[in-house]
Amino acid sequence: MKRNTWQREAVREALSSTEGFISAQGLHLSLHETGSPIGLATVYRALADLAAEGDADSLQSPEGESLYRACTTGHHHHLICRNCGLTVEIEADEVEQWARAAAASHGFTQAQHVVDVFGLCAGCTAKAAGAE
Length: 132
Ligand SMILES: [Zn+2]
Ligand SMILES: [Zn+2]
Ligand SMILES: [Zn+2]
Prior knowledge:
This protein is an alpha+beta fold. Helix content is 44%, strand content 17%. It folds into two domains: 1-74, Orthogonal Bundle (Arc Repressor Mutant, subunit A); 75-132, Dna Ligase, domain 1, CATH 3.30.1490. Helix 1 packs across helix 3 and helix 2 (24-33) crosses helix 3 (40-52). The site of one zinc ion has 8 residues, from helix 5. GO terms for molecular function: DNA-binding transcription factor activity; transcription cis-regulatory region binding; zinc ion binding.
């Protein structure tokens, strides 16, 4: 059963117009700025639903916060700038092979993995270097 349809659509739209990953609080704030009366708890729930159905990617920031992004479908990985939030979607055949092999060597089947790389993007690296 699907509840809160307009809220979900509002969250989905806000998410697709956002570049990079965003937290539920961040998305709630930007929805609020556009005059939406949607509540924070509803944003949390809608994001979790979208992620569960594969309509959004979710990941944990190094600080342990859940972040979301409307992503291309299919399995992929992310490079994420921890300063500005720039996100690059990457494919990593080496990781796929390694994950399969590592799982198989321990007798695991149906292995899944989440690999996201946090760092400083080129722009932020240059700015950080310039500031020194
Ligand atoms: Zn993605
Ligand atoms: Zn950056
Ligand atoms: Zn992978």
